[in-house]
Amino acid sequence: MADTHPSYETATGDAGETHQQVPVNGPHGNQRDAARSHLTTNQGLRISDNQNSLKAGARGPTLLEDFVLREKIFHFDHERIPERIVHARGSAAHGVFECTHAIPELTSAGLFAAIGKQTPVFVRFSTVAGGAGSVDTPRDVRGFAVKFYTEEGNWDLVGNNIPVFFIQDAIKFPDLVHAVKMEADKGYPQAASAHDTFWDFVSLMPESIHMVLWQMSDRTIPRSPRFMEGFGIHTFRLVNAEGASKLVKFHWKPVLGLQSTTWDEAVKIAGADPDYHRRDLYEAIDTGAFPAWDLGVQVFEESWAQEQPFDVLDATKLIPEELVPVRIIGRMTLNRNPDNFFAETEQSAFCPANIVPGIDFTPDPLLQGRLFSYLDTQKSRLGTANFHQLPINAPKCPMRNFQRDGMMQMEIPKGRANYEPNSLNEAGEPTGPRECPATGFTTFARGMLPNNSDQHLRARPALFADHYSQARLFYRSQTPVEQAHLASAFVFELSKVGLEHVRHRMLTVLGAVDEDLGRRVAGGLAMELPPPADMAAPVVEMAPSPALSILSHGQPPIEGRKIGILFAEGSSLKAIEAMKTAIESKGGKAVLIAQKVGGIPVDDGMLKAEGQLMGSPSALFDAVASIIHPDALDHLRSDHAVHAWFADAYAHCKTIGACPATLRLLEEWGIARDDGIASLEEFPDLAPARHWDREGKVRLLA
Ligand code: HDE
Questions:
Q1: 11: CA distance to ligand 1 center in Å?
Q2: How far is the CA of 354 from the centre of ligand 1 (A)?
Q3: What single string gives the DSSP state of each residue in 301-338?
Q4: Distances (CA, A) of 576 to 188, 495, 570
Q5: pLDDT in tens, 169-206
Q6: pLDDT above 60 for 2
Q7: Could you tell me the pTM of the whole model?
Q8: Which PANTHER family does the entry mention (predicted)?
Q9: Ligand 1 pocket, 235 CB below 6 A?
Q10: Residue 282, SS3?
Q11: Structure confidence at residue 554 (pLDDT)
Q12: What is the Cα 212 distance to its own chain's centre?
């Protein structure tokens, strides 16, 4: 009977066998829900049974005829596409960019034309080296790719969270990426630069050293994308409606401020929550705590650029903010999570060549290579030249041209006009679109930077030879705590390098950057500091730039930070609620943690935790508070997770808000009281300051 599937079919075996019951209709039996939409094949045919394949008898082989099964398995077999060759792991969000300071005198780009002008954006943050399934918190550069869906076409500002890059010329990019990815023979390490081939390569490429210093700084272990800066890196051009042009560098400044983890935290977070950044971004947006960034520009004249001791076309160099201030021109707010990770985040295709009138490229040889690479790789990743038609990539303004056909063409262009010029209008037919000399994109007639000649040479400009000045500037602009982190990061990474001569060579490079840095790293490796490496150009001393440091900006606010509150049996409900309110009234997020999540008796009823202690180590929080009853101490002190919670929070230099019973516990465990161990009353004001003076007491720093 077609309409009433029995849940079980009675199958009769050979004569003499007992009867067996064979499930034929799955766990839902013949449930029918008229309100539910119908499950269909890809051809729209309603499916009657999604639990059982079609067989020759209940115990017989599956029939080739079962097109429902074949279609389903076929599609599943092809669900994966190649992951990005770099920046494979990422997460993204939709949002809006709003112009807060119009700059029509600098650019004709419509999105900067008037205060209040809004442009939709899609932003993808990524790690670089690891595969799509790797963790969120390796030591790695982060991608910061923004697609602006402007009224004049899509503009992609495909940047990183570091303002400089490892190499000067695109021709070295495949070598760099091969060196940093898992080693070719071994297939490991995943998402890590701490191995022979990376350090072999960079120790032979002195142009990398400036970026390597940034990479060994806390910038590459960010607290989450919400607390990262972004940079367009290259020098671009702004062109106004009159055709006058200035040079520009783009900066994103997080409204919540810059914040990083410590290395030990990053390692622990990788185990406790491999999706830490992805989750952080998703949850912040989901709960209405929309992350935001200000877009700033450093604008300068070509004549100014020509007087500098560095070349603005060299992507291994930055322009200190103290030399050219960053002017804020707009704010980007991420306010909507993607509905579908694959369709949007995975299929998004960013490309530095996606540009709009009013913005143009420069001959930076790294940028020039990128202008080719992205479109090329996306054809191979997304399988067809028509990937621009995917909803996430399609411009929101009209898109019309004579490009036709190709695999997976989704549009149905009408008429015969698929070439230009044509005179089909004379036959009463549509002619199709026409070029627009007045409003269309025109490449800026390039200014003649002195190092920008018409000759075609395989050469680099003379100033590109200075690899050390800005690396030294970076190191000397850090606070002592950051310098110690940097040196310790080098020690960690180089300790993983098995090739003695590579370590030795790296020490010559570091000694050339700064003798103090070289000595610390050599000390950490128990090696002698060799003489500094030869330099292709002399070092130019530059005044320190505090803007390059994360910690010189003072105590971060509690807004947007996550605070863990530990409670146990008998804890004071009133005190917990008061703490939660104090944190949340300042814009922080309080998360209740206990040994069990289902509900624990507190002094005034039952309280449910939002996180179980074992799965919520203190590394996941910006600061921790603990509200416990003295009677719970016996039980808590025997739990290693409790000890680790406090010991890690202490070692990660976090503020600990402690009730008197917690103080007893800390004292027993030898966690000495200091300025960062606060009473419950002081805690909300002090969190999430870090107490870096502890660091030297808990770990060996280089
Ligand atoms: Fe990329 N880069 N890159 N890159 N890059 C890619 O494009 C490339 C560089 C950056 O979230 C690829 O679609 C070359 C600098 C981001 O989807 C590929 C060179 C900067 C993303 C590619 C560079 C970046 C990519 C891989 C040297 C910072 C992720 C997958 C000339 C300004 C975008 C893809 C996303 C992705 C090539 C250097 C940023 C292979 C050849 C410098 C944020 O096309």
A1: 60
A2: 13
A3: -HHHHHTSSS-TT-TT----TTTSPPEEEEEEEEEE--
A4: 46, 45, 11
A5: 999 999 999 999 999 999 999 999 999 999 999 999 99
A6: no
A7: 0.90
A8: CATALASE, CATALASE-B
A9: no
A10: helix
A11: 83
A12: 18
Q: How far apart (Å, rounded) are the C-alpha atoms in residues 62 and 74?
A: 15
Whether 354 is a known active-site residue: answer: no
Residue of 25, 154, 160, 354 marked active site:
160
Substitution site in 83, 84, 169, 347 for ligand 1 pocket (most atoms within 8 Å of beta carbon): 84
Ligand 1 pocket check for 138: Cβ under 6 Å: no
Residue spans of beta strands (DSSP E) within 128-244: 142-150, 153-160, 230-231, 236-239
Task: Verify whether ligand 1 is closer than 6 Å to residue 179 (CB atom).
Answer: no
Give 134 Cα–ligand 1 centroid separation in angstroms. 18
* Secondary element (H or E) of residue 281: helix 276-286
CA 143 to centroid of ligand 1, rounded, Å? 8
Residue ranges of domains in the chain, CATH in brackets: 1-79 (4.10.91.20), 90-165+223-389 (2.40.180.10), 558-698 (3.40.50.880)
CA-closest residue to ligand 1 atom 28: 159
Q: Contact at 8 Å (CB) between 618 and 645?
A: yes
Q: Using one digit for the tens of pLDDT, what is the confidence trace for 345-396? A: 999 999 999 999 999 999 999 999 999 999 999 999 999 999 999 999 999 9
- Tell me whether residue 25 is one of the annotated catalytic residues: no
Closest C-alpha to ligand 1, atom 25: 87
Q: Please give the pLDDT value at position 446.
A: 72
Query: Rounded distance, CA 279 to CA 367, Å?
Result: 32
Annotated catalytic residue, options 25, 87, 154, 451? 87
Decide which of 23 and 512 is more confident.
512
ipTM of the complex: 0.94
**What is the SS3 assignment for 520?**
helix
Q: Which two tokens stand for residue 593?
A: 């943690």
The finding on whether 410 has its CB within 6 A of some atom of ligand 1 is: no
* Amino acid in the structure at residue 54: L
532 Cβ closer than 6 Å to some ligand 1 atom = no
Instruction: Give the list of residues 6+ apart from residue 94 with CB closer than 8 angstroms, or none.
Output: 120, 121, 122, 123, 334, 335, 336, 337, 338
Residue nearest ligand 1's atom 32 by CA: 159
Contact 329, 358 (CB under 8 A): no
Residue 567's H or E segment, with its range, is: strand 562-567
**226 in Cβ contact with 291 (< 8 Å):** yes
Question: At what angle are helices 209-216 and 469-476 packed, to 10 degrees?
Answer: 20
